[in-house]
Amino acid sequence: MPPPPPVLVEEHVEEILLRFSPQHPAFLFRAALVCKRWCRLISSPGFRRRYREFHRTPPMLAILVNAEVDSDGSSVSRFVPGRPAFCLPLLESRRWRVLDARHGRVLTRRVGREPAAEAAGVELQVCDPITMERRMVPIPSPRVLCLAAAVLCSSTPDAGACDHLDCHRGPFLVVFVGCLHLDRRTFIYTFSSETAAWNGPIFTQLSISATPPRMTSKCVGNALYFGFPMSDTILKYDLQSGHISGIEFPTECSFNQSNVFITTEGGGLGIASVHHYALHTWSRDDAVGWMQTRAIEIQSLLPVDTLLGSAEPRVAGFADRFGMVFLLVNNVLYLVHLSTYKVIKLFRGIGISINSVVPYMNFYTPALGASCTNEGPSAGGSSA
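Structure tokens predicted for F-box domain-containing protein:
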């Protein structure tokens, strides 16, 4: 009878598991079911932290789609999995519209009837899609209109205080851009989950259209940017000083809803837009303003018949850290890699008209506490 195979040294096992790609979270889940020792290792907080530090860039787990139902025009948010066997039922609803996603959290706004939210004056909620936790956030005042909002880790204003690899369970901020029902003056409130209170308002003299933009916010350094193309204004909010300033759009992007913020190769603020059937990108330099960096004919990216009989394509979102733009053509969503111009067809809106896309990015590692102690393997949730 041959001798049993030697037991793998735990340090060696960990080094192997650390190299499992975060693009395929199911691999770690399967490894955790091999034996109790591996399960305890993969489920431990120390491994999860080292796994994030090793890979640094979280995968795009899902695409959150804001759309309108063709039959009645009501708003709906839809979930499109970016990875097999990953599901976000918490965000599948006609009641909430996705506004932002950052640092492992998703910010949504109520757009339909929900009696519990209506009674509490709740307009916003912050979700952790992996742990299925959510927190209702009341609006600052019943007299205000929500123009835009963003969610972020509460350590963001302090540069270098957090690497944002594993902070989705910690305190957060919600930055709310609004105006009064009868007043065009724009202001910002900031909500802290630690104090459960709003700070503000901070008023600005900038004149902003009351039409909510399709653009999601962009965080660069210690500043948040909100785009209002119908007012030809980008609102810059300094998270440390609380100062608000305005920036004009590039001329081709003014009064055009087909704009999204992007990250430039140098990590700065950029914009992607469709103009005359071409995908344009710009980068901004504080000294010289906007500079165009690309102009790509869309017909060179897609099959010839794709554009026949369709309205002009438009950009619907941007996947930060991946350099990928979501392009909407005739209600079909495509993913365009700006570095290689590779195009991936994602899906067609059936029964809905797609408005905007918000990618959700986070690490997804298994938490199988019961499997580590019981005799038989059993599935569990995720520790994120």
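Confidence is low (pLDDT under 50) at residues 114-120, 375-380.
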